[in-house]
Write a structure and sequence with these properties.
Beta-galactosidase, Chain A, domain 5; eight-stranded antiparallel sheet; mainly beta
Length: about 375
């Protein structure tokens, strides 16, 4: 035997064998990690994701990312019980999720431009149509998701956290402009209430201030401006109480805030139930209240807060100064810029069906609700904004 040649051969193949062994180990590790049980793989199988505590449960759709349900465990009433059918959806959205409950508008609020539609951009952006990816979470009371709106070049990372005790959750969303250029955009939290929570008796309370009806907002939003909750239809001179839901016409009323925190509460006196939202007005300076009726009964009530005010296309908004008391109806995102926006949601039994909400505050981690009759409801949370 030629031992010299054998040793030479072993010296040549030894690095190859080591590399092959390492590759086999890596493959085995990957198989074990992907085939073993994990929160990510379990949640990835679900089309509707669920967070809960002892008193409440929130459910979120993976396709479209909508918060589709928020209810107390001892009740079947879901205030977010609203959706469109596929046939009711805009044509450029029918390949994905339908609008429902509380969904996210990205890139624009409402219809894209004619050129954007031609390019395949859906109404209200891709995140409300497409599938979201579920990411690992540190605890059961937390949910992490993300999506990339390819056509707009904007990514969204979302963290939803449920309070340990109370029927309250928070949502933190980070928006990143993935483009190599700056762009104008919008983010709107399209919260839509539906029956049976919504009825002619439903009340809307908010600290919103100056505003206008969308129909008369362009080109001069000041021309027919008013102050919450008293609106007036300029042509008919009909006055609308925006706190009520018994008006038999359709409208969208848009408002800004004087405070650093914005809030809105919807009250169903028949079910004695409140659903409320709270956010920083530096992040979301506008609220749009959409009232839609059919056969004189309300079928949808939008309490949509965001960065969009005047609901027209960007070409019009940029043609002249369209600010309303200094607020633009869009925001600018530089290339690679990140922007984090947050809000808090609560669902409570109303202590008095005839009482109204006067103020909502978040003092550090304490949620404080004050009513017109002087009642104060205080909850110490495990969450914060």
């Amino acid at each position: 035997m030629n031992f010299k040649a054998l040793f030479k051969y072993i010296a040549l193949v030894q690095p190859v064998l080591k590399s092959l062994s390492l590759s086999i180990l890596l493959c085995l590790s990957w198989i074990l990690m992907t085939c073993g049980p994990s929160e990510k793989t379990e949640r990835q199988k679900e089309s509707r994701l669920r967070l809960e505590n002892e008193v409440s449960v929130v459910e979120i759709e993976r396709q479209g990312g909508a918060i589709a349900s928020f209810r107390l465990k001892d009740s079947d009433i879901n205030p977010l019980n609203w959706s469109l059918s596929v046939d009711q959806m805009p044509k450029n959205n029918r390949s994905g999720a339908v609008f429902k409950g509380h969904f996210l508008c990205i890139g624009r609020w409402g219809s894209p431009s004619a050129g954007e539609i031609q390019a395949g951009v859906p109404h209200n952006g891709e995140p409300s149509r497409d599938w979201w990816e579920v990411l690992p979470s540190a605890r059961k009371s937390e949910l992490n998701m993300k999506i990339l709106a390819h056509l707009d070049g904007i990514s969204v990372e979302r963290t939803v956290k449920m309070d340990e005790i109370h029927p309250v959750f928070t949502v933190h969303e980070t928006f990143t402009n993935q483009n190599t250029f700056g762009r104008i955009s919008n983010v709107v939290q399209h919260v839509t209430l539906g029956p049976p929570f919504l009825s002619r008796d439903t009340r809307i309370y908010s600290n919103a201030r100056a505003g206008f009806l969308q129909r008369y907002s362009w080109p001069d939003p000041y021309a027919h401006a008013f102050t919450w909750p008293h609106a007036k239809e300029p042509e008919s001179q009909i006055e609308i109480d925006l706190q009520k839901s018994d008006y038999t016409g359709n409208y969208v009323s848009t408002h800004i805030f004087d405070d650093s925190t914005g809030w809105v509460v919807a009250h169903d006196p028949n079910q004695k139930l409140w659903i409320g939202y709270l956010w920083h007005t530096g992040e979301y300076p506008w609220i749009n209240v959409w009232h839609q009726v059919e056969n004189d009964l309300p079928i949808a009530k939008g309490i949509e807060f965001g960065t969009a005010g005047i609901g027209t296309d960007y070409k019009d908004l940029l043609s002249h100064d369209s600010r309303f008391f200094g607020r633009n109806s869009f925001e600018y995102m530089d290339a690679g810029e990140k922007s984090t926006k947050k809000y808090l949601v609560f669902l409570l039994e109303a202590p008095d069906k005839d009482d109204s909400v006067l103020q909502v505050q978040l003092l550090y981690n304490t949620l404080l609700i004050t009513t017109a009759k002087g009642m104060k409801i205080s909850m110490e949370l495990s969450l914060s904004l």
